[in-house]
Amino acid sequence: MAKIGLNNFRYSILTEAEDGAPTYAGAKKPAKAIDCKVNIENNSAELYADDGLAESDYSFKKGTASITIDEDNDEMMSEMLGHTIDKETGEMVRKDTDTAPFIGFGRIISKLVGGVQKYKVEFLPKVKFAEPSQEDTTKGESVEFKTTTLEGTVMKLADGTWSRTKTFTDKQEAITYLESLLAKTA
């Protein structure tokens, strides 16, 4: 299997009910996908007894997600980071009291398996992104593109779910599935 592409980032605001059941506000596309890195941190505990390993735990602890997008439009950034858009001026206003919401986040990874193109949906049901760093430079003798990278913490839902994946042979089916995970409910 060879990964050959990345596309179709989708996100939605997550609300968890008192019983822990997740609901989402409907799939949105933040911008075009450039890069995505997900690093998982596992618990690591080993118990030795009678001169040997008797028990071990390598379960999910938390993770980090780093996504690079081609456009940092104010509406999407304000929603993902908990900022507001002033209705009169159209300005995005950042305050020190703003709190980023939990969101569901997914993407589609294109891959080649035995000469057949496939599309793998990777979905993180609970992520909280942080304010990105900004780096800008003047245009010199040649143009250099700059992009925005958002970094967030991957967490598990109340039922322990921290990731979902499914692979398709049809790209539109993969997109439909990803959007269904973030579908607006009642």
Q: In terms of per-residue confidence, which ranges show pLDDT below 50 for 5 or more consecutive residues?
A: none
Q: What is the gyration radius calculated from CA atoms?
A: 19 Å
Our count of helices gives 2
The ordered H/E elements are EEEEEEHEEEEEEH
Largest sheet: 8 strands, antiparallel
State mean pLDDT (0 to 100 scale). Answer: 92
Count of discrete structural domains: 1
Oligomer: single chain
What distance separates the N and C termini? 39 Å
Number of strands: 12
What is the beta-strand fraction? over 45%
Assign a percent range to the helix content.
10-25%
Helix and strand composition category: mainly beta
Blueprint of the fold:
Elements: E1 2-16, E2 22-24, E3 33-42, E4 45-49, E5 52-57, E6 60-69, H1 74-81, E7 84-85, E8 92-93, E9 103-113, E10 116-130, E11 148-154, E12 164-168, H2 171-181
Antiparallel strand pairs: 1-2, 1-9, 3-6, 4-5, 6-11, 7-8, 9-10, 10-11, 10-12
3D architecture notes:
The protein is mostly beta strands and 186 residues long. The chain has one domain (2-69, 99-137, 144-181). Helices cover 10% and strands 49% of the residues. The strands form three sheets. Strands 1, 2, 3, 6, 9, 10, 11 and 12 form an eight-stranded antiparallel beta sheet that branches. Strands 4-5 form a two-stranded antiparallel sheet. A two-stranded antiparallel sheet has the order 7-8. Strand 9 and strand 10 form a beta hairpin. The longest helix has 11 residues, at 171-181. The protein is globular and about 70 Å long. The protein starts with a strand and ends in a 5-residue tail after the last helix.
